């Protein structure tokens, strides 16, 4: 019921959602991250730590299945070069009820941001720069430690 | 031990992977960073600000004061920015 993928191939939403629907869930929640084209960004390159990345995603997914009653978890992250408008990450959860699916989906993307070894490099015309980590991402991930049963209390 | 570098750490050093045998006095990740900084101008540039670095020992995130123990693979990289 856990599917983790780190792949240069485009993310196929319909395929991923259909696989979650086959789990017999009453609710499917999904998050899709898309490469932004603001600030003149012409391309985004994703580097990762092969081997560790997959283990980290599985660990995050397993933590979610211990915390919520889930029928399916999907975490797909693209790597390599992608263009504005292309999907970079897909998170999907299947559960009997919406609350589990929605909370687990938010947890998974928040944790992925701080606990999985990916690095973004933005290309803007001829210039390229590594994206700096955001303090807000650490806060968003950390809130799941503080409020065990009230994930949205802040 | 096998050393892996990612993102701008890799670019500054000029390679993503190398094998090194640090001296016995190098007992934790912070010591390793200080020692690596002495190896070449590229290493020195990559390791110049330890506060901007993160590490993993045998593919688990660790703090910079984590002991190296019998680590086989140590990775040094900037804070992660996926998703």
TrEMBL record, chain A:
Top-level taxon of the source organism: Bacteria
Gene3D superfamilies found in the cross-reference section: Molybdopterin biosynthesis MoaE subunit (3.90.1170.40)
Enzyme class: transferase
Pathway(s) annotated for this protein in UniProt: Cofactor biosynthesis; molybdopterin biosynthesis
Catalytic activity: 2 [molybdopterin-synthase sulfur-carrier protein]-C-terminal-Gly-aminoethanethioate + cyclic pyranopterin phosphate + H2O = molybdopterin + 2 [molybdopterin-synthase sulfur-carrier protein]-C-terminal Gly-Gly + 2 H(+)
Pfam families: MoaE
InterPro entries: MoaE_sf, Mopterin_biosynth_MoaE
Annotated EC: 2.8.1.12
Keywords: Molybdenum cofactor biosynthesis
Entries under SUPFAM superfamilies matching the protein: Molybdopterin synthase subunit MoaE
Family named by the database record: Belongs to the MoaE family.
Subunit structure: Heterotetramer of 2 MoaD subunits and 2 MoaE subunits. Also stable as homodimer. The enzyme changes between these two forms during catalysis.
Summary of the function given for this chain in its UniProt record: Converts molybdopterin precursor Z into molybdopterin. This requires the incorporation of two sulfur atoms into precursor Z to generate a dithiolene group. The sulfur is provided by MoaD.
Name of the protein: Molybdopterin synthase catalytic subunit
UniProtKB/TrEMBL annotation, chain B:
Protein name, UniProt field: Molybdopterin converting factor subunit 1
SUPFAM superfamilies for this protein: MoaD/ThiS (SSF54285)
Organism whose genome encodes this protein: Sphingomonas agrestis
Chain ranges passing through the membrane: none
